[in-house]
Amino acid sequence: MSKRKISSIVIVTLLVLMTFNSYFVLDETQQAIVTQFGKPVGDPRTSPGINFKIPFLHKVQFFDKRYLEWDGDRNQVPTKDKKFIFIDTYARWEITNPLQFFIRLRDERSAQSRLDDILDGETRNAIASHDLLDIVRSSNREPEITEDFLEEIEVLQDISVGRDMIEKIVLKKANERTIDLGVRILDFRFKRMNYVDDVRDRVYDRMISERNRIADQFRSEGQGKARVIEGNKERDLAEIQSEAFRQAEEIKGKADAEATAIYAAAYNRSRTSVELYKFLRTMESFEKSMDEKTSIILSTDSEFFRYLRKLN
Asked: Around Cβ 83, how many Cβ atoms within 10 Å?
């Protein structure tokens, strides 16, 4: 192959390389900075499409245009009222000025590290400046009372700030520190809060004690109602027995009256009936006053002896 052909191939190759190296494509999710010898050149490229640069001299640094995620570390933080809690947080952020971002942070990895410092620091400051009650609650809601006796138990203390406001405070403070970084924090939230072990044990003990007190109150009210029911039962039983005894005595009285009337009618009918009545009454007296072990002494004028003598 001649030198002329080799030169032509080299030239063509260089032209092709220069052509492909003279432009770059941005999609909708990207933005870029063109650098020359490590220094930014021109304005940031943010519009999607084909962009041109000087081949081999310029390099392109791409950055994400979408919302980015930040996930904080789980930290143990003291509250204003000296309660130690574990805090787990997260945030969303975006690159608003790619040129400033490149100058201050260079890449997303450095940005994540810088956000760790800013957001974790502001979170600690916010937690340490507020009581635990403000951190775990968002509003002064009224508790739902399901039983009358719970009115004195389910009493919530009022809060002055609340968790939502604390999140906004952290977001505001953090954005003040990221103005010159070319980023903006869009949202900040507490993902999870939990007591440290010793505080959690004390809270559980207090909850158990409170529930035991509620259970004792339930039992006390139940015993009181049981005594009322028992008293009503005894009263009703006494009334029923009294009414039954009264009715029984009335029935007996009516029966005795009817029997007396029958005896009286039979007694006055004839001499024979009178003798029969006397005989029956005497026999009844014998039956009630004597048995096989009874011994009696009768006079000759005794009514008992008179009937016994007639038997001989």
From this structure: 19
Q: 150-178 b/e with 16+ CB inside 10 Å = b?
A: eeeeeeeeebebbbeebbebbbebbbebb
SS3 223: helix
Given a contact cutoff of 8 angstroms between Cβ atoms, the answer to whether 223 and 166 are in contact is: no
Residue 112: enclosing H or E segment and its boundaries? helix 108-128
Q: Residue 185 — pLDDT band, cuts 50, 70, 90? A: very high
Higher pLDDT, residue 138 or 177? 177
Q: Which residue is it, tokens 């005497």?
A: 282
**pLDDT at residue 17, rounded to an integer:** 54
DSSP H helical ranges for 268-312: 271-289, 303-310
Q: Which residue has the tokens 């399901």?
A: 146
If 0-12 CB within 10 Å is exposed, 13-18 middle and 19+ buried, where does residue 193 land? middle
What is d(CA 71, CA 262) in angstroms, rounded to the nearest whole number?
A: 109
Q: How many CB atoms lie within 10 A of CB 130?
A: 21
Q: Is this model's pTM higher than 0.90 or not?
A: no
Residues in the chain: 312
Q: In sequence order, what E strands does 14-139 have?
A: 23-26, 30-36, 39-45, 49-52, 58-64, 68-71, 75-78, 84-95
Between 261 and 108, the higher pLDDT residue:
108
